[in-house]
Amino acid sequence: MKTRDRILATAQGLFNEVGYGAVTTALLAERLGIAEGNLWYHFKTKRALLDAIGERFATAIEARLALVPQGDPLGDYARLLRAMMAEFRDFRFLYRDQSSYGDHAEVIAAGASGWTRRSFAQIEAHLVALVEAGLLDWPRERLEDLAINATILLRYGLEHERELGAATASGTGAVRRILLRHLTLFEHALDPAAARQLKTEIERIEAEEPLAA
User: Fold this and answer.
1) What are the pLDDT digits (tens) for 178-209?
2) Domain map of the chain by residue range?
3) Quick one: which of 155, 76, 158 has its CA closest to 115?
4) Running DSSP on this structure, what letter comes out for residue 132?
5) Threshold 0.85, pTM exceeds
6) Cβ pair 157, 183 in contact under 8 A
7) What is the 3-state secondary structure (H, E, C) of 139-152?
8) Do residues 110 and 160 lie in contact, with contact meaning Cβ atoms separated by under 8 Å?
């Protein structure tokens, strides 16, 4: 791995682990096993690191937004949930520590509202696929509201857990709790076999997606 890429990967992992505000240049250089001067040869400021990680974040979101229904409504929806939780895992600090670092990187500030609206539409498209397959009994005119509520629960679920004092790191069941909580919005309207299959997928996602605290 190139030094610049290694710095970015290590910084992102460290920001996720202890929080953006708690990471000093000395700590990052120590974790990397390089001199601080070598670190800042590649990134002049900590904000430059944030901007570079923001670009990675934007790329990851665009890849996730490209997940459209492909003809297997349950499998497609499970893949979307898995991708979303991976996004929350890989960029945990961006979702968690906004008050610690102030304004977002420019690419995030520019894209945030559009990504949110597209995320609503993405989940709605997957819910439409479930309805059309006869797996979800839900009025089409109310699917937008359901998609918005589901997105909010998924997006802010971990922060809600933290505010309640619950552990959210790997092995705590936080991912499982959040995914099951979002499922309660429409589980009653799902075909029973479909609901069981989604719960099975949720158990797999919990095992696959480790999260920093």
Assistant:
1) 999 999 999 999 999 999 999 999 999 988 87
2) 60-208
3) 155
4) H
5) yes
6) no
7) CHHHHHHHHHHHHH
8) no
